[in-house]
Amino acid sequence: MGSRKKIKAEAAKEARKLVYVAKLNNCPTSPRKMRLVADLVRGMDVQKASAVLQFSKKEASIKMEKLLRSAIANYEVKTGNSWEDANLFIKEIKVDGGRMLKRIQPAPQGRAHRIRKRSNHVTLIVDAKTEDK
Known about the structure:
Helix content is 44%, strand content 33%. By secondary structure, it is of the alpha+beta class. The chain has one domain (21-128): CATH 3.90.470.10.
């Protein structure tokens, strides 16, 4: 590895230490339904977002709350601080399409319709509020 590449890789590694991320891959919910839940909590404080997800009727909110708790745990492990004292908020949340299972549904007169069972990938980034942000 060249010296410039090595320096850049070390800088990226240091930057990753300051980011508190949780990922959920191949969640068997359509991305459209998951984005509705993600839009509810985007930019909220962690405590308020957890309450919103806990009392939401949508099934995707259960998985999103579990992901939020995972991001909080990642913060606690990386920093060693308690999340209650940190004033955490959801900095970024992305929902991308995942793999698609293609199935066949029988239709009248010998035909068949294609059923697409969608899944998604969710990335949630949590950060602590400071005066300069």
